[in-house]
Amino acid sequence: MSLLIIALSIIIIGGLLALAVCKYSYLSTLLGVGSTVIGCIIGLIPVGQTIYYGDTTTFRLAWNIPYGSFFLKLDPLSAFFLLPILFLSGLAAIYGREYMIVYRHKKWLGLSWFFLNLLIVSMVFVCLANNTILFLASWEVMALSSFFLVAFEYEKEEVRKASWIYMVASYLGTACLLPMFLILGSSANILDFDLFNKSLSPLALNICFVLALIGFGTKAGIMPFHVWLPVAHPAAPSPVSAIMSGVMIKTGIYGLVRTLTFLGMPPLWWGYLLLAIGIVSGILGVLFALAQHDLKRLLAYHSVENIGIIMIGFGVGMIGWSSGMPVVAALGFAGGLLHVVNHALFKGLLFLGAGSVFHSTHNLEIDHLGGLIKKMPYTGMFFLIGAVAISGLPPLNGFISEFVIYLASFSGAMSMNSYSSLSLIGAIAGLALIGGLAVACFTKAFGVVFLGEPRSNDARNAHESSPRMTIPMMILALSCIVIGLLGAAIILFVSPVIGVVLGNPYTGEIRIASNYLLYVTAGSIVFIICLLTIAGLRWLLLSKRSVGQSVTWDCGYAAPTARMQYTASSFAQPITDLFEFFLRTKKNNTMPDSYFPAAAHFETHTADVSRESIYNPLFKTIDRFSQRMQVVQEGRIHIYVLYVVVTLLILLFWNMR
Amino acid sequence: MDSPMEIMMILLVLSDFALLGLSRLRTCISIVSFQGMLLGLLALVSQWGSLTLRLVMIAAASFIIKGFVFPILLRRGIREAGTQQEMEPFVGYIMSIIAGLVMLGVSLWLGNKLPLFALGSGTYLIIPAALTTLFTGLFLIIARKNALNQCLGYIIMENGIYTFGIFSVVEIPLLVELGILLDVFVAVFVMGIAIYHINREFDHLDSDRLNVLKG
Amino acid sequence: MQISSFLNILLGLLFAPLFLGIINKTKASFAGRTGQPLLQSYYDIIKQLQKGAVYSKTTSWIFRAGPVVGLSAILVALVIVPLGGIAAPLAFSGDLLLLAYILGTMRFFTVIAALDTGSSFEGMGASREVLFSALAEPAFLIGLAAIARETGVLSLSQMLPAAHFFSPEVVLVVIALLVVFLCENARIPFDDPNTHLELTMIHEVMVLDHSGPDFALILYSSALKLWVLGLVIVGMVFPSSADYFWPVPVFMALCGLILLAVIVGVIESTMARLRLLRIPQLLVAAGSLSAFAFILVLR
């Protein structure tokens, strides 16, 4: 634990020093990156130890805030979430050094590095805090520092709007958390998590669960509270997007799981609710991702989808927990938790890849890119690994976590009573559909951006990024492959975390899943052997024959251009048209109306359905209501004094009766 | 090998799904006539041990009327109106099939809640199948625009009530049973005439556009 | 893991292209023609293997990797699926998931190899392909979940022989899986494997620019995909048991596959390809058949 405190101190001191010298860009960047990397490496040691040995360490300091105490606890659950936080932050910092340095003449980089380090430290504190006040304080600092990071390019209006929406959403979520913590801690003097009331009435428990779901769900990005995600993540610079999408939304998941440990055995409907939210978020998230044509917005909606998958895992786990089926409970939660780590890895990788693309082409519009794999081979290859991983395909890590969730759902569907098994069949159908649509989305993203011919000058003038940007991506890609191949071993480490959540590590059940994952690894090894053998045979065959080069068959067109290729919108069109009811894409086009070819114009725009149909009307109603309340605000001092006097008289008479 | 009644109920539910998902009116009419014949057989099979002349008459009457007479009337209506396909329905075909699954689930739940009666093996599916058929008929009336489809929906509703009736009452007075059948026969006959006149007057069978009639 | 499991794999590797020939012969006899020789697929593969290749300047290493990854993926699938009641070499609980998703890997790389050419034809086929397979997945998995609940096991090698064909649930699942089979293998009513017009192509057009050994790999992988998915259906229908001496259940399974190929040929000869708007409806109908089968198992 002390190592962790040292690590955190290094990071925050580095940040403060970077702020102090923010006039000198290179020095502040060096301080910021250096402190982050060293801090993350040192911090990973105690985290790794906790996961490996499954023990719990604590740390206390005296703190005189009422109801608060500086009580940090590192148990397997916190350590499990700290692992991706520290790992990804370190890599994103290395990446960021190269990415942000191009802004050194326009902005004070030291400021950004300060906020980045502050963000990392606050995220770690959120996972370590064992006291409500400390937790909420870290939560607020996390929101504020990420706000400043999102507003990095504050001179652009859409960035300002994005950071404002992010701020509002964040605070609305936090507003739900405070009452929940107060209910939980209603019988303690100090609001430590350990001293929470364990015997609340069922009504109080239900209220707490719903408040936690809304509050933490807003941060995590479940539907319909996700509206800030596709706005804020694209507006932030890419290393910040990677950290936000990869690990910051996971702190919401951490909060939800930690709340579950306070609430005890859940009633069945909580599991159903989580499952329903998960299925809806997953399917709608990937559908909206398919309709986007900005690369980072697409990736942001995919985060919503993967949070949906995590919620499906947790929902299945809770259904199993309430029904007393240990296999379903343990494997559901294990799959969801493993997906937390996996998603951090491949989403971080994808955002860093998108950042590389932006760094070299300054254009994130998918339909203006193309053919980048020839100019940026390493970025392309790592993006491909990220794309295959996020689609949940073997032999990479996405398949491992989805496999465990599927195992839980199938076991439950095979042996539970009617309603629960029908809901688990819904989970299976939902996961299958989500997986298929994710393949569609990422073949679109990878195919149109990296393959084919460049569609614009931005794409033609692309260049590969420097090693400082490609090496973090390589490390993330390698970790995807490693977890994919060693899934059987990795799942065993989730056992102590399950012990914290469910009260019982269920090592037996997890060992069973691990045995099946060994076979999956065997299948992956067969795959790789076949791959190498067939590639070798093909090379042998072709080396003796003539291999020619030509153009792609273009059906004899007189003047083919790169713009005649299939665009991303065309690729997604069958799916977006099928799901028209949810997407409501607005199209405007001007077609030539003469006999000969002329210029045409086509544009699609998919607004977020929740925002259009829930939040905009809601805010407009509140606005109108407030306008009517404005009557009270007369503006003249006489009336205000009258208000004061009337209130005092009322209180006086009330007391005297 | 499961009891023939269970297989007939499964075929009934499958025909409901087919009606929800298909758009060609001719095929829909064929499926409805198949349903009618199936239910006629069902009346016989359910009381296989104790056949009475009355039962055989009812079964034969519904077999012939629903299996042959109605389809002939409806096909004539199609020929007069000249339509073959359903126009854009209010609820798309994929949503209709998913709605069908939801209706099946609701019918199963209702079937569990209603007080059951045992009539041998394979009877657990009867009430859900009957209710599903009833809901399918209602769904078709609400969700489809073509007037002929609404006529079909009415017939399917009657099929559902008939299935429900075969098993919930042991003794149906002959008069009531024939009365129901006569009621439906007259309704279809009248609807056929009305459809002919609607088509002649407005040149289409889109019942959604009939709202121009309101003041 | 017995010797017979490996012999089954050998059978698959040898005989898979034969079934394409049987389908073509059935279609030819329906049309009154003599048709291609039964072994035509073998001749095609061998001919392509002996040729050189021409690559487009637009393509990158992904185009060359696509067919290789596809064949490797289908070989993994071959090791999972049982034949004639004899357990596959890589049988384990949940292997049906590995089967469904390794086919997904094959599909992913075929699609990006198609997009690599920068041609609109391949893009069109690819975009349809991803939609149809996304809709076919739930039907496949829910159907197998129904069988899993009925038999109480989660491994294909144990599930398929234990499914009694004459219960209504299994019949419904077989019909649903047949629809998925037709979709995945690009048969009518989803796709026309004969024509090369862009209106009808989904799978055919994705491999338009491949030539030489690459194309041979693609032809062979599509034959193996037919074999693998066909075995899943035939395993449920035909009685098979490992108690008998090895050639007997294998022989029955091969007869089942021949019958399946003939049925596919009949379907191809009697139906036309559906309009593209109707294909999602058919897939959702197959999914609802699977769901109905699961509801029936719930009693």
Structure description:
The complex is a heterotrimer of chains A (657), B (215) and C (299). Chain A has helices at 2-20, 25-53, 76-100, 109-128, 132-150, 157-184, 202-220, 229-235, 238-263, 268-291, 295-323, 326-361, 372-375, 377-390, 397-415, 418-450, 457-460, 467-485, 487-492, 495-502, 507-543, 568-578, 580-583, 609-629, 637-656; strands spanning 57-61, 70-74, 547-550, 586-590, 601-605. Among the domains of chain A are: 566-605, no CATH class; 609-656. In chain A, the strands form 2 sheets. A two-stranded antiparallel sheet of chain A has the order 1-2. In chain A, strands 4-5 form a two-stranded antiparallel ribbon. Chain A has 657 residues and is mostly helical. With 215 residues, chain B is mostly helical. Chain B has one domain. Helices cover 74% and strands 0% of the residues of chain B. Chain C is an all-alpha fold and 299 residues long. Chain C has one domain. Chain C is built from 11 helices and 1 strand; from the N terminus they run ααβααααααααα. The longest helix of chain C has 32 residues, at 120-151. Classes of the chains: A mainly alpha (657), B mainly alpha (215), C mainly alpha (299). The interface between A and C is large, with 82 and 81 residues.
What's the structural blueprint in terms of helices and strands?
The complex is a heterotrimer of chains A (657), B (215) and C (299).
Chain A: H1 2-20, H2 25-53, E1 57-61, E2 70-74, H3 76-100, H4 109-128, H5 132-150, H6 157-184, H7 202-220, H8 229-235, H9 238-263, H10 268-291, H11 295-323, H12 326-361, H13 372-375, H14 377-390, H15 397-415, H16 418-450, H17 457-460, H18 467-485, H19 487-492, H20 495-502, H21 507-543, E3 547-550, H22 568-578, H23 580-583, E4 586-590, E5 601-605, H24 609-629, H25 637-656
Antiparallel strand pairs in A: 1-2, 4-5
Helix pairs in contact in A: 1-2, 1-4, 2-3, 2-4, 3-4, 3-9, 3-12, 3-18, 4-5, 4-9, 5-6, 6-7, 6-8, 7-9, 8-9, 8-11, 9-12, 10-11, 10-16, 11-12, 11-15, 11-16, 12-14, 12-15, 12-18, 12-20, 14-16, 14-18, 15-16, 15-18
Chain B: H1 4-21, H2 25-46, H3 53-81, H4 93-113, H5 126-143, H6 147-168, H7 174-202
Chain C: H1 3-30, H2 40-49, E1 53-56, H3 61-80, H4 95-116, H5 120-151, H6 156-162, H7 168-184, H8 203-206, H9 213-237, H10 247-270, H11 278-297
